[in-house]
Amino acid sequence: MSSENQVAEQPILSTTQPSEPATLENTQPVEVDWKESLPDELKAEKTLESIKDIPSLAKSYIHAQKLVGSDKIPVPNKHATEEDWNKVYEKLGRPNSAQEYNFNLPDGSSVDEKALTNFKDAAHKYGLLPKQAEGILNFYQDMTNGMIADLDSKAEQGRMNAEQTLQKEWGAAYNSKLNSAMDAAREYLDTDFAHLTLSDGTKVGDHPVFIKAFAKIASDVGEDKFVSANGPQYMTPDEIGKQVGELQKQGSAYWDKNHPNHDAAVKEVQNLLELKHKR
Questions:
Q1: How far lies 7's CA from each of 11, 15, 16, in Å?
Q2: pTM for this entry
Q3: Is 107 in a helix, a strand, or coil?
Q4: Cβ distance 181 to 214 under 8 Å?
Q5: What is the pLDDT of residues 2-31, one digit of tens each?
Q6: Could you give the angle at the alpha carbon of 237 between the alpha carbons of 235 and 238, nearest 5°?
Q7: What are the distances in angstroms from CA 149 to CA 146, 175, 261?
Q8: What does the angle CA 13 – CA 15 – CA 16 come to, to the nearest 5 degrees?
Q9: Which of 167, 165, 171 is nearest to 235 (CA)?
Q10: Domain ranges in the chain?
């Protein structure tokens, strides 16, 4: 073969440059929804909406698995039995029996033992935890003490009002008539009756109507029976007024200066009037 033919058979270089091969820098990542690989019935599951990728799904699964072994308490529904609820109460920390409730009551607290036992039984029946039961008991104690203090205050105020009313009406005879009334009440009534509390907080024995009623009973039955040991007797302002009226009757020695008892009558009237206005 001639040299000319060899030259002719050599390939002619193309003036067109080949395209550059694709590199990683020039490739854009394609986002793929991991849920697309799931069955159709799982794709629409609401609980998966917050999980963006497979690693997040793995973390969620691991967390759920750890919770499987923890102590959980199922909430009974409306069809739950008493036994179902008892299981819940026990897991929450209710004592095994009512007798196991121990309460730290405030100093000075006075609780009836029978009432306390009944409360423990009720607390256990309704599933109260020890702290809850103690809190309710202390609340009840505080409320009761407040009511008692309020009643005592009202009773004392009622006694003071009655005392002022009767002192004003009876004057110097107050002590003797009060003692007579109390003696008569003890004679004819049960002792506890006088300690009954009226709607306004006043005790029966401190009410002025009660005292005046028994003072009259004592007077009608006979002063000697009830007041002989109570010291000197005194008249009420009304009784003094009646006696002054008797002494000052028209034609009496009080008006006749020549009467031998005129001075004595005038002196007695003066003494009675002074006694009437004495407090």
A1: 9, 19, 22
A2: 0.45
A3: coil
A4: yes
A5: 455 555 555 544 445 555 555 555 556 666
A6: 95
A7: 5, 29, 60
A8: 115
A9: 171
A10: 82-148, 235-279
